[in-house]
Amino acid sequence: MFLSCLVIWAGVAVSAVDVDRGEVDFRPGPEEGSVPAPFRLEPAIFAYERTRVFSTPRYTVSRLTFPSPIESPDAANNVVHAEYFAPVGFSGKRPAVVVLHILGSDFPLSRYMAARLADRGVAALFVKLPYYGERRPTGGPGPVPRKFLSDDIERSMRSMRQGVCDVRRAGRWLATRPDVDPDRLGVTGISLGGIVSSLVVSVDPQIRSGALLLAGGDLSKVLWDMPETAPFRKMWTESGRTVDDLKRLTDPYDPLTYAAGMAGKRVLMIAGNVDEVVPPASAKALWEAGGKPPIVWYDCGHYSAVGYLLPAIRQTVDFLGGGDPPRPADSRASPAG
């Protein structure tokens, strides 16, 4: 459904296994009471394990696991898997960003984004969303959920909630890193990752910045109109349900519901002006509800945005690294290699 890109990067493998086990004691501050109930985190002490697996002159890469704050029926899905790209050679405490992937689970694309952030001195934690990668159950009785989003909209919205809460807990882990500035936490993602990122930056008081690529609001309309969801629409209407019924299910997890929380934060949006999956009207609605942050419009659709990924990633890395948002004159861009 979403973009696909093959990215190859190289470094020096670490021969000695470096394992760090510890705990994070999360005690919500007074601002937690303002977080919408579906995404609120309870006080908790959670364990994590980080294993360093890769090194380059500019950053190290570690695998990270910790328990999800939300318990689903699938045990494998309740362990969050992530990859931490820690900058090397930078002084002082660094900004940090959670990086999220697309619906098609194109992990190399997210790793490329994380690596470029680390090159810039931004600590980057690539987080795999519910039912992706190692979190996808295998075997067992009954049907196995295969995707974050499926025809089971109620389960899909539970996954959306879990994903947001997982990212919030990931942010709490980042804040404990000795080389991370806890006052400069951000989030970024493309398409599905951008939608989850927009929720996180809207509801989490500790997330101060976000770069939202190919994201938008009005989930019920996006899900209803997508070309890929024709079988779902047929099944939904044959069961006697309407798009209004869908809206009632999705509104509690819709970025538009919480977008006012972006106000006062450092946010950049990048959208396609002929996007056939997340329509321009959806991106514009999120932009308006979020206080009209800087936005870049590319002359592309959702799938043809693959030709714009490199300039989009460059703009995202520059912005999250502390650079100025793109000028209005840059709001129309051309593909670049």
End-to-end gap:
23 Å
Shape: globular
Query: What is the radius of gyration computed over CA atoms, rounded to a whole number of angstroms?
Result: 19 Å
Q: What is the average of the pLDDT values?
A: 89
Structural classification: alpha/beta
Order of helices and strands: EEEEEHEHEHEHHHHEHEHE
What is the percentage of strand-forming residues?
A: 25-35%
Major beta-sheet overview = 11 strands, mixed
Q: Which regions are unreliable across 5 or more consecutive residues at pLDDT < 50?
A: 1-12
Discrete helix count: 9
Overall helicity: 25-40%
Beta-strand segment tally: 11
Name the strands of the widest sheet in spatial order: 1-2-3-4-6-5-7-8-9-10-11
Q: What does this 3D model show about the protein?
A:
Strands 1-2-3-4-6-5-7-8-9-10-11 form an eleven-stranded mixed β-sheet, sandwiched between helices. The longest helix has 23 residues. The chain has 337 residues and is α/β, with parallel strands linked by helices. 29% of the residues lie in helices and 26% in strands. The chain contains nine helices and eleven strands. The two termini are 23 Å apart.
